Amino acid sequence: EQAVPEVSAQQLLVEGAVGKLQPLEPDVASFHAVVHAHPLAGGANIGRRMARHYNVGLVDIQATVNELLSEAGVVPFQEEVPPEEEDGEPTMRVVPGKFQLDPACHPTDVALAFQEAFFPPPPPPEEGEEAPPAEEEGGEDEGPPPPRTVEIEEGWLTESLLERAVRRRLMDIDCVRGAVFTSLDVKELPDRAAVARSVKVALAG
User: Fold this and answer.
1) What are phi and psi of 115, to 5 degrees?
2) What is the pLDDT of residue 11?
3) Which end of the chain is more exposed for a tag (fewer CB within 10 A), N or C?
4) pLDDT at residue 13, rounded to an integer
């Protein structure tokens, strides 16, 4: 059998953002930066070049939020719109501010917290009270029960929840040496100062 070379504690190999294995000394300081630019100034391209230059992860906070919502099974609710013409086909449109839960998703950790921000778990039964029966699928004619839906206003994304989302993203292998954040714009949390505070707390953790 071929011997496996040992890796000393003084030289750890990590996969960088450009796909190369590069040595990382334990005492090498990490690099973090936030690109805050005008929408037409090409901030994403600047961040991408910085991440490649310093060999660190590229973090898009909005993409991170979208990914967690998908993992949580929270999707925009769509309703059927009747055709305008008699022989036309009905279309589907997204209802603003209304969401539905994918029952096939069973998230954990941060994704579960995202799900519970929309669909909180039922309160535990009080002492001496029986728990409500679990929802059962209907018969052959009835089909499965309708998905849970909720109408929610803006502001559901709190600083603490965003901080947990950013912290989870920073645990990915491409962010071992650091990260470049492409923007502070998050549509679910329009206050850029609040987004910046969340990023700061996540980096401090």
Assistant:
1) -60, -45
2) 39
3) N
4) 38
